[in-house]
Design brief:
- The chain is α/β, with parallel strands linked by helices.
- It is about 50% helix and about 20% strand.
- It has a six-stranded mixed β-sheet, with helices on both faces. A five-stranded mixed β-sheet has the order 7-6-8-5-9, sandwiched between helices.
- The termini are far apart.
- The model is unreliable at about 1-35 (pLDDT under 50).
Length: about 325
């Protein structure tokens, strides 16, 4: 009887030890899942700022590693290199990245108004319209939406890109060149356009209204689409919700962005109020608009071959 009694006392202790090991293993597995990482590329923390202001970065079931870029071109290069899993970039930079061989696809789309994409010149410049850009030096970032705007604005005015001198610079160098008079105009996008207008009193020579359908995309690498589909889908839903929230709270978004970027709040409020950024489903019209952009680039010799944009969209991430 004593032996039986001892056995009954020993067995429960092993039972609890085993249960503890199993629980620890389960906790470890859950922790591993919770620390799955999504590497997200951003431009001047525009995506992150809206997500943080809306509170939609709380209680993430995964971890985000943010990388910030000054423009879309280096972000596209990072996608191509697999340094990031996903990132936001405009329609023209996405085409440029795809033409360069990026193994990535657009996984969500957003639409915005076009006033924040413009060719600007110094306040005292003699340039008054697109026709007076002939023979001038125009700074822009190669493969950017600013580059696209120059091409289509010149075409509408009956000019060719060979009628101007395009100077390819990153935004900070372009701004310095315009201020110093080393270039005559700068084709760029917000926040740079807004800063030029509000702080440097630059004049807008032409903006993109009527010249393009303004879409921006969240693009993701093929590897991320395949191997991180669930957390990428969650991130895209949060991003869509954050954009809808920002439409109703431009001042709060501007406040949060001002803390993150150091840009003046009044500039950021101006940007968000006029952009009206909102999510849209990837549909036939979005794809047609992207094809038109690709065709413009092809016609101007910016990309070396015809690009069929259809396969560069992934419609498996449904907008809710």
């Amino acid at each position: 009887m004593k032996t039986t009694s001892v056995r009954h006392q020993v067995l429960p202790s092993w039972h609890w030890l085993l249960a503890g090991i199993v629980a620890l293993a389960c906790h470890g597995a859950a922790h591993a899942a919770a620390t799955e990482v999504l590497r997200v590329g951003d431009q001047r923390q525009g995506t992150r700022g809206i997500l943080e202001a809306s509170g939609l970065l709380k209680d993430l079931p995964y971890r985000i590693e943010w990388s910030d870029f000054p423009a879309a071109q280096p972000l596209g290069e990072a996608l191509n290199a697999g340094v990031i899993d996903t990132g936001a970039l405009g329609d023209a930079p996405l085409i440029f990245a795809l033409a360069a061989g990026a193994r990535a696809r657009a996984v969500s789309a957003s639409k915005l108004q076009s006033e924040g994409l413009a060719v600007v010149a110094n306040a005292n410049s003699p340039i008054t319209d697109v026709a007076s850009l002939k023979g001038r030096r125009i700074a822009t970032t190669r493969g950017s939406i600013g580059h696209f705007l120059v091409i289509v604005a010149l075409q509408k005015a009956g000019l060719k890109t060979s009628d101007v001198n395009l100077v390819f610079l990153n935004p900070s160098d372009a701004k310095a060149a315009l201020s110093a008079g080393a270039v005559d105009a700068w084709s760029t996008w917000d926040p740079y356009v807004a800063i030029e207008e509000l702080h440097d009193h630059a004049k807008v020579i032409v903006n993109a209204v009527g010249l393009r359908d303004s879409y921006t995309y969240q693009a993701a690498t093929d590897d991320a689409i395949r191997n991180k589909h669930a957390i990428l889908a969650d991130f895209l839903q949060r991003w869509a919700q954050a954009q809808r929230w920002a439409l109703l709270h431009p001042e709060q978004v501007a406040e949060a962005q001002a803390r993150i970027t150091g840009l003046p709040k009044e500039v950021l409020t101006y940007i968000y109020a006029r952009a009206k950024l909102h999510p849209v489903p990837i549909d036939a019209e979005v794809i047609r608009a992207q094809q038109r952009t690709a065709d413009v680039y092809e016609g101007a010799g910016v990309i070396p071959r015809h690009l069929d944009v259809g396969p560069s969209f992934d419609t498996s991430f449904k907008l809710k």
